[in-house]
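Model it.
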Amino acid sequence: MRNKVMSTDPINWQKSSFSGGGGENCVEVALHDGEIMMRESDEPGSTIKTSREKMAAFIAGVKNGEFDHFVN
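Modeled.
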């Protein structure tokens, strides 16, 4: 079994300009070690990781309106 070497590079989180002035309604994303990472700004200790390909498919679905029922 190989040990995965963790990067010591800082993670540069990005949030949407639509998240509100205080950032309280915000999902943040970052690209780190080739993976997309996501977290909620009010719970930064919980993160998920996914691939660029999966994130691209999700964004295409959002653009197509497939998830509108979650927010309407």
